[in-house]
Structures are given as C-alpha cells and as structure tokens.
Write a structure and sequence with these properties.
Layout: H1 10-20, E1 25-33, H2 40-51, E2 58-64, H3 71-81, E3 86-91, H4 97-107, E4 110-115, H5 124-136, E5 142-149, H6 154-170, E6 179-186, H7 187-194, H8 203-210, E7 214-220, H9 233-247, H10 250-280, H11 287-319, E8 327-332, H12 333-336
Helix pairs in contact: 6-9, 10-11
The structure holds uridine-5'-diphosphate and magnesium ion.
C-alpha cells in the first residue's frame, strides 16, 4: 500500500512513478467509481471486447472513491483475475470524482491517458477512435467528447446553457459547451494537469486552463447500465458556483460596481429629497419606500458579502494545503511481478 501524499513534491512523484514503471503502456484508462458495484465487471468486459484487437497495451486504473456498496470487493476480484492489467486505488472516504481523476492520472503509466466513467454511458469503442486521432494527427494533444444529443429535461438544459454563457463571459478561459470529462490526452497534458494541485478542482476549467490543441468529437451518452447518477440539481448548482468562483474574480468587481452604483443613486435621491423639501416644502410620505429600500439594500449587502465569502472560503480551504485525496489501499499489477 502506497500513500503518495506523504511526499510533498507532487512533480517529483510523477517523474518518480513513471521512471519506476517497468511496463511501457500505450494507454491508461482512468475510471473513477463511486457505488458502481454492478457496473465494474460489465465495464471491464466492454473494454476487453472493444480493445481485443487493438494491437497495443492498455491498463485500467480503477479509483474507488469511498464507495459504500460492494464496488471495492468487485474491483479486488477484477484485480486478482487480471484479465487485463488492472490497478485499483481505494480512497479512505468519498473525495469526489475530480480527486479520483487526479489519483488515477498519478498512477497512470500510459503514453495516452483516457478518462471514462464506470457506468458505460461512455462507450469504450470511442476511446479507440480517440487514440487513433492522437496517433494520426500529431497536432492534437487532447481528444475530448461532447454530447451531441442530451436526454435531460428542458429546465436542466436551460440552466446548463445559462451556466456556459455566464462562465464564458466571466472567466478568462473558454469552456466548450457540453464537453465532458470523457477525453483522451497525451502524457504531457496529464503532467500539466497534475501540476495544478488546487484542492477545489473543477476539471472543465482545468482542461481549458492548461490549453493544448483539442479535437472535439461528438458522442451520444448511453443510459446508465445500473445504479443511479450521483448528480442532482443542487450538486450541479454547487459545481457551477465552484467553476465560476474558481476561474474568475469578476464577481468581486461586480460587487464593487454594484455598491458604487447604489451609493451614487442614494446620493442623487438624497439631493432630490432635500430640494423637494426646500423648494416646495413637500413632506416625503415614505413608509413603503423605506421598507422597499431597506429590503433591497439589505439583500444587496448580503449578496455581496456572500460573493466575498465564497472567495474567502476558497482561500481558507487552499491555505490549509490538505491533500486532494487519501489512499487507503493501492493494488498495482506492476508490483505483483
Ligand atoms: N463518481 C465518483 N465519485 C463521486 C461521484 C461520481 O468517482 O463522488 C464517478 C461515478 O462512479 C461515475 C462517474 O464519476 O463513474 C460519473 O458519475 P455519474 O454517472 O453519477 O455522473 P453523470 O454521468 O450522471 O454525470
Ligand atoms: Mg454517468
């Protein structure tokens, strides 16, 4: 069992691990798994079928993200069988898919690294196409799949569209609409991503931030084979906030402008009130106005404090410098040899 995070210099780990790896794999499939007990074997069978005549070596790196069902048990079985080279990293608790991706990439020894879900919504055959593109078109470093048809409801679709519009307006990086984490990239890209060790990870933003030439290919997500999606509306909303706060400080500036504009309007109104009183002697009947203004200004202040709080919170989290994940168990076919 190796706990990588007892070492502090992550860059050092990447090179160290690569140098230690005796087998030179062409492709590493990184598969984050959270409560996917019924899916992992089906997933592996699908991968073996899709790659049986590919003519190159590949490995599967499963990351058990603190599953509460029999996922780890089933992954251990797959590891023992070694129908194809398998590594299993098991976290001490649920750290989230982003942490799973990070850990999987650290353990990858392939020249190409592919991120794919365990629920077979993303077909392994597409990974073969991605590898082919990287082989044949050296100008590309990343092949990313985006969903051409979405099976979700209109409301969710509207919110997702709005999210992309807002984040692309606010942040310095441009996110491709509907692009998922389902992608294959060269080792150099993985090393660049691993060097970004922020604790609040928003992979869509990270991929856009590191740059590299990306080829986008369409795909249609299949239905989940078994189990349920771990996302709901509130989780998506949190994820979207994470993305906006993580990739832009413009909301802070907007809060400043908002405060400035409100103060300016209040000042103008004050002059009007004084003039009305002095010139025409009108008493201002103001109960309703005062209530509305108090509520409006109170709401604005809370909103602005909330925005600042988001950033302070993120700074606080990052200043603790905690590891992105903790490995409880690491099964590696390379160390079995
Ligand atoms: N996942 C994970 N940790 C989590 C949530 C999800 O490793 O905390 C994995 C999950 O097992 C799956 C992938 O991330 O392999 C995508 O999750 P899901 O299918 O729930 O997302 P969706 O496809 O609905 O967007
Ligand atoms: Mg899914």
């Amino acid at each position: 069992c190796i706990n990588f995070l007892t070492l502090t210099n992550k860059k050092h780990i990447i090179y160290l691990k690569h140098a230690e790896s005796e087998i030179n794999m062409k492709l590493s499939l990184v598969v984050p798994c959270y409560n996917e007990a019924e899916n992992v074997r089906l997933f592996q069978d699908a991968v073996i079928t899709a790659f049986h005549d590919c003519g190159y070596d590949y490995e599967i790196i499963y990351v058990n993200d603190g599953s509460k069902d029999a996922t780890l048990h089933n992954l251990k079985k797959l590891f023992q069988e070694q129908k194809c080279p398998v590594k299993v990293i098991s976290f001490s608790r649920n750290f989230g898919k982003e942490a799973g991706i990070y850990a999987g990439m650290e353990a990858a020894s392939g020249d190409y690294i592919s991120l794919i879900d365990a629920d077979l919504q993303q077909q392994p055959e597409i990974v073969r196409d991605m590898v082919k593109i990287l082989d044949e078109q050296p100008q590309y470093d990343v092949v990313a799949a985006y969903q051409d048809r979405r099976g979700e409801g209109k409301i969710l679709s509207f919110f997702k569209k709005s999210f992309y519009r807002i984040i692309n307006k606010l942040s310095d990086v441009t996110l491709k609409k509907d692009a998922s984490d389902f992608r294959t990239f060269r080792r150099s890209v993985a090393e660049s991503i691993l060097n970004l060790s922020e604790s609040h990870r928003f992979s869509k933003g990270i991929f856009a931030w590191v740059g590299y030439e990306t080829c986008f290919i369409p795909y249609t997500a299949c239905k989940r084979v078994a189990g349920v999606s771990k996302w709901n509306f509130w989780k998506l909303l949190n994820y979207a906030t994470e993305g906006i706060v993580g990739y832009s400080t413009k909301p802070l500036r907007m809060a400043t402008f908002l405060g400035g504009m409100t103060s300016f309007s209040a000042f103008i109104y004050l002059i009007i009130v004084i003039l009305q009183k002095l010139i025409s002697g009108i008493d201002i009947p103001g109960y309703a106005t005062i209530i509305v203004l108090i509520l409006f200004l109170g709401g604005m202040q809370l909103l602005c404090i909330g925005i600042i709080g988001e950033y302070v919170g993120k700074t606080f989290e990052q200043s603790k410098n905690r590891p992105i994940y903790i490995t409880k168990e690491y099964l590696n076919y390379e160390s079995e040899k």
